[in-house]
């Protein structure tokens, strides 16, 4: 069976891992109040999603 | 392979899962909208749709099948009384999900599950509903 000849040094291991990173979350703006909000979520400030206010009981 | 294996397990045993969804679907029909995590909300739609289909059929057998899932008799009465008016014109799409944010403790996505359609104005204290409520309470007392 093929086996690595040398131990991977900490430096080499860590260098490989420099590309493993998390990106910034995609954030949009609420069309109602202009606050930052996550896409496909109701706005945390005004509670509106697709023109409906979801925090109040709709009539 | 997960061919034809629909539904989610949610790290629960089968009995735990069905008990949980029975509770949840009872609450959903009782309060019209409930807040839960996203995967549970998505799975809850199946339960709700199935029960509304039963309610639209509306015969005695359907009522008994609904009674076997919903835990409160009064909720079944309300559902069967309102279903034709509320959902009669639709074939599916009885629920609406809206994501409302991330939970603080574990960053789980919280979702609002709502029944679509205009809520039916109930006549002041439906006689049958009152009767069923009383029966529910009586049953609880006898259990204790």
Structural write-up:
The complex is a heterodimer of chains A (59) and B (144). Chain A is an alpha+beta fold. Chain A has one helix at 10-16; strands at 28-29, 36-37, 48-49, 52-53. Chain B has 5 helices and 3 strands; from the N terminus they run αβαααββα. The N and C termini of chain B lie far apart (47 Å). Chain B has a 3-stranded antiparallel sheet. With 144 residues, chain B is α+β, with helices and mostly antiparallel strands. Chain B has helices spanning 14-31, 38-57, 60-67, 73-87, 127-143, and strands at 33-37, 95-102, 109-115. In chain B, β2 (95-102) and β3 form a beta hairpin. The chains are: A alpha+beta (59), B alpha+beta (144). At the A-B interface, loops of A face β2 of B.
| Secondary-structure content class of chain B | alpha+beta
Question: For the record, what is the CATH homologous superfamily label of chain B?
Answer: Ribosomal protein L17
Radius of gyration of chain A: 23 Å
CATH class of chain B: Alpha Beta
How many β-strand stretches of chain A? 4
Which labels suit this protein?
heterodimer, A: 59 residues, alpha+beta, two-stranded antiparallel ribbon, 1 helix, B: 144 residues, 50s Ribosomal Protein L17, Chain: A, 3-stranded antiparallel beta sheet, 54% helix
Structure at a glance:
The complex is a heterodimer of chains A (59) and B (144). With 59 residues, chain A is α+β, with helices and mostly antiparallel strands. In chain A, 12% of the residues lie in helices and 14% in strands.
Strand and helix map with partners:
The complex is a heterodimer of chains A (59) and B (144).
Chain A: H1 10-16, E1 28-29, E2 36-37, E3 48-49, E4 52-53
Antiparallel strand pairs in A: 1-2, 3-4
Chain B: H1 14-31, E1 33-37, H2 38-57, H3 60-67, H4 73-87, E2 95-102, E3 109-115, H5 127-143
Antiparallel strand pairs in B: 1-3, 2-3
């Amino acid at each position: 069976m093929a086996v690595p000849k040398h131990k991977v040094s900490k430096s080499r291991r860590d260098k490989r891992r420099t590309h493993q990173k998390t990106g910034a979350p995609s954030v949009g703006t609420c069309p109602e109040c202009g606050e930052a909000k996550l896409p496909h979520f109701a706005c945390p400030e005004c509670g509106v999603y697709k023109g409906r206010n979801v925090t109040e009981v709709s009539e | 392979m997960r061919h034809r294996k629909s539904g989610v397990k949610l790290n629960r045993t089968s009995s735990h899962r069905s008990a949980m969804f029975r509770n949840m679907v009872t609450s959903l029909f009782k309060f019209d909208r409930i807040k839960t995590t996203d995967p549970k909300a998505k799975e809850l739609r199946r339960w709700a749709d199935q029960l509304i289909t039963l309610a639209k059929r509306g015969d005695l057998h359907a009522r008994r099948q609904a009674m076997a899932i919903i835990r409160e008799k009064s909720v079944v009465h309300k559902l069967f009384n309102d279903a034709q008016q509320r959902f009669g014109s639709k074939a599916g799409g009885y629920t609406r999900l809206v994501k409302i944010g991330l939970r603080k403790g574990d960053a789980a996505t919280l979702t609002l599950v709502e029944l679509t359609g205009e809520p039916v104005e109930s006549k002041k204290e439906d006689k049958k509903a009152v009767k069923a409520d009383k029966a529910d309470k009586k049953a609880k007392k006898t259990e204790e």
